[in-house]
Design a protein that fits this description.
The protein has 169 residues and is mainly beta. It has one domain. The strands form 3 sheets. The protein has a 5-stranded mixed sheet with strand order 2-3-4-5-6. Strands 1-7 form a two-stranded antiparallel sheet. The longest helix is centred in the C-terminal third of the chain and has 11 residues. It starts with a strand and ends in a 27-residue tail after the last strand.
Length: 169
């Protein structure tokens, strides 16, 4: 998904419509994330050129990603649906600008990094399909979930103090 300035100049109203299906199985960007692969993603939206130097992307992404189960390391398929909006420039930009503008290199606008970033942001930090009854446990320890209710236990070293009745006058 690479576009040049000429592509935008030749497009109707300087707008390129996007309606693509892609899959990412092996990629250097994915090796650094919790996402193992992206078997399918449907990308729809527009790339709008302002006629001078700026291109505004407005993309909708929906599909499936494969992540590892946090406990068993099995593959889990996770559905996602997200939006992405970025601004690109074919000309150098002032680095003190308020908004983030991505400078296009070699007159070729590649939207794949934007797509990967939007999908990776949707990946769960931890996920498991294992029922709580099957969580690992051992002699004196047990894996807990943040949804498990913790009962207040009094430290046995302080428990003897409960026997003393203090007068509060």
């Amino acid at each position: 998904m690479v576009f040049t300035k000429n592509d935008f100049l030749n497009a109707n109203d300087s707008i390129i419509q996007i309606d693509e299906w892609i899959a990412v199985e092996e990629n250097d960007l994915l090796h650094q994330t919790q996402v193992k692969s992206i078997p399918e993603v449907h990308i729809t939206g527009t790339l709008q050129f302002d006629g001078d130097a700026l291109v505004y992307s407005d993309l909708d992404l929906d599909g499936k990603m494969i992540v590892l189960d946090s406990i068993t390391n099995d593959d889990i398929e996770v559905a996602f649906d997200t939006k992405s909006q970025e601004t690109y420039s074919f000309d150098p930009v002032d680095e003190d600008a308020d908004e983030e503008i991505i400078v296009v290199k070699k007159n070729r606008l590649d939207i794949k990094p934007e797509i990967f970033q939007a999908i990776v942001y949707e990946a769960p930090m931890s996920i498991t399909l294992l029922p709580r009854s099957q969580y690992p446990k051992g002699n004196g320890w047990q894996l807990l979930s943040d949804q498990d209710e913790q009962e207040e236990k009094i430290d046995p070293r302080w428990e003897k103090l409960n026997e003393f009745k203090l007068d509060e006058d």
